[in-house]
Amino acid sequence: LKLGTIVVKVIVNPKGEVIDAKYDTGTGAAAAAADATTRKRCVEASKKCKFSVAKDEPKVQKGTITWTFK
Predict the structure, then answer these.
(1) Residues 6+ apart with CB under 8 A from 32
(2) What does the pLDDT average to over 2-21?
(3) DSSP alpha helices (H): ranges in 19-67?
(4) How confident is the model at residue 31 (pLDDT cuts 50, 70, 90)?
């Protein structure tokens, strides 16, 4: 069982769609963050996320998604 966190940087368009996602960092010695397959799956899952839409927001927004494995 892999424990820890994986943080993915995301860029979101005005429609609330993730248009870019990249692995940022992770925690947990010999854990989830150390496994390339788990990191890749978190990036792919982040690309499928949708965010709420606000008409007065910037054209693109940047943020992070933290995946926690317990």
Answers:
(1) 2, 3, 4, 5, 6, 26, 38, 39, 67, 69
(2) 91
(3) 36-47
(4) low
The secondary structure of residue 30, as a DSSP letter, is T
* Cβ neighbour number for residue 60 with a 10 Å cutoff: 11
> What are the C-alpha distances in Å from 20 to residues 33, 41, 62?
19, 14, 9
Residue 62's alpha-carbon distances to 8, 29, 31, 36, 38, in angstroms, are 11, 28, 26, 23, 22
* C-beta atoms surrounding 36 within 10 Å: 9
Question: Considering the chain, what is the average pLDDT of its residues?
Answer: 86
Q: How far apart are CA 70 and CA 65, in angstroms?
A: 16
